[in-house]
């Protein structure tokens, strides 16, 4: 049981490049979310999904796209990378049943945009 | 709308001393409250949670927290700090129902434990 798997672990992009951060979970969780972590700001919600085919915006969605074609996968796309998107990105999942169990987090992707 | 404030971005204690990390929240609905711990270069691990029922909740590694509705607080405590407790700690809140998946985090508190 791998939990939540994020790839890559590290990435350097040039301004204007696009890329996709991958997230997969094998726990059959309905809810999945993407957060970014910046020093002194905690984690902020980018996008989330309550199930396959359903996504919604979080607190800081600009510059990011998501889709949820399967229960297992929830990729995050950076359309045109900017230095302000330099951050650590975490994917997380939680089952709908048993509310309040808390998210399971991936180990993160450290992204640097130069 | 919901928000979380963690009082003190850095807390330093001696090994064996009491650990107290403060968290205050605001929420327009009955909250679900969480404490997470993050060790360097790792993801977040759930320490404990409050949903309903008993207001004093116990978590892993000897930590506990008390939900005080009148004070809108959810402070994290541990009677005796260990060197391995050194990490960053995050308090988080979510609403119930369809909003429970939307966690709002505090800015984090870095705990340092001195020998």
Shape category of chain B: globular
Helix segment tally of chain B = 0
Poorly predicted runs of chain A are none
> Terminal Cα separation of chain A, in Å?
36 Å
Order of helices and strands of chain B: EEEEEEEEEEE
If helices are DSSP runs of H or I spanning 4 or more residues, what is the number of helices of chain A? Answer: 0
Helical content of chain B (DSSP H or I, runs of 4+): under 10%
Radius of gyration of chain A from CA coordinates:
13 Å
Account of the protein in words:
The complex is a heterodimer of chains A (114) and B (115). Chain A is mainly beta and 114 residues long. Helices cover 0% and strands 49% of the residues of chain A. Chain A contains no helices and 11 strands. In chain A, the strands form 2 sheets. In chain A, strands 2, 4, 5, 6, 9, 10 and 11 form a 7-stranded mixed sheet that branches. In chain A, strands 1-3-8-7 form a 4-stranded antiparallel sheet, with no helix packed on it. Chain A is globular and about 40 Å long. Chain B is mostly beta strands and 115 residues long. Chain B has no helices and 11 strands. Chain B has strands at residues 2-7, 10-14, 19-27, 31-38, 44-50, 56-58, 64-68, 73-78, 87-95, 104-105, 109-114. In chain B, the strands form 2 sheets. In chain B, strands 2, 4, 5, 9, 10 and 11 form a 6-stranded mixed sheet that branches. In chain B, strands 1-3-8-7-6 form a 5-stranded antiparallel sheet, with no helix packed on it. In chain B, strand 7 and strand 8 form a beta hairpin. The model of chain B has no long low-confidence stretch (mean pLDDT 91). Classes of the chains: A mainly beta (114), B mainly beta (115).
């Amino acid at each position: 049981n791998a939990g939540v798997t994020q790839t890559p672990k590290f990435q350097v992009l040039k301004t204007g490049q696009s890329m996709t951060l991958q997230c997969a979970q094998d726990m059959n969780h309905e809810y999945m979310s993407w957060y970014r972590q910046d020093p002194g700001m905690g984690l902020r919600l980018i996008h989330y999904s309550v199930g396959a085919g359903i996504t919604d915006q979080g607190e800081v969605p600009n510059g990011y796209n998501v889709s949820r074609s399967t229960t297992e996968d929830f990729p995050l796309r950076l359309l045109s990378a900017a230095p302000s998107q330099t951050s650590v990105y975490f994917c997380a999942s939680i089952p709908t049943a048993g509310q309040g169990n808390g998210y399971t987090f991936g180990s993160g992707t450290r992204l640097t945009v130069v | 709308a919901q928000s979380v404030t963690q009082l003190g971005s850095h807390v330093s204690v001696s090994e064996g001393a009491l650990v107290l990390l403060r968290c205050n929240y605001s929420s327009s609905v009955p909250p679900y409250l969480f404490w997470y711990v993050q060790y360097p270069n790792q993801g977040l691990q759930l320490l404990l949670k409050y949903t309903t029922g008993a207001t004093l909740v116990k978590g892993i590694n000897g930590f506990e927290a008390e939900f005080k509705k009148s004070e809108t607080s959810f402070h994290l405590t541990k009677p005796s700090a260990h060197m391995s407790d050194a990490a960053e700690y995050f308090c988080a809140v979510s609403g119930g129902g369809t909003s429970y998946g939307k966690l709002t985090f505090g800015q984090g508190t870095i705990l340092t434990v001195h020998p």
